[in-house]
Design goal:
This protein has 62 residues and is mainly α. The chain contains 2 helices and no strands.
């Protein structure tokens, strides 16, 4: 690869082309998951909040 001598620490980080592709795919899937989760939460319809112990008032009975 390179002609200069690498330290033992640097040589531990050398990756083959296939390993680089795997890391890229994993990062892409992670990023896609984050984007999808953000989009889902952004477009989620809020539910009406009703605390426990409080009954719903039936508007037809009034």
């Amino acid at each position: 690869m390179t002609d200069k001598k690498l330290s033992p620490l640097q040589s531990g980080f050398l990756l083959s082309g296939q390993e680089k592709k795997y890391i890229l795919i994993i990062c892409a899937v992670f990023l896609l998951g984050l984007i999808t989760r953000y989009w889902y939460l952004k477009h989620e319809k809020p539910r009406e909040y009703t605390p426990e112990g409080i009954e719903q008032v039936d508007k037809n009975r009034e």
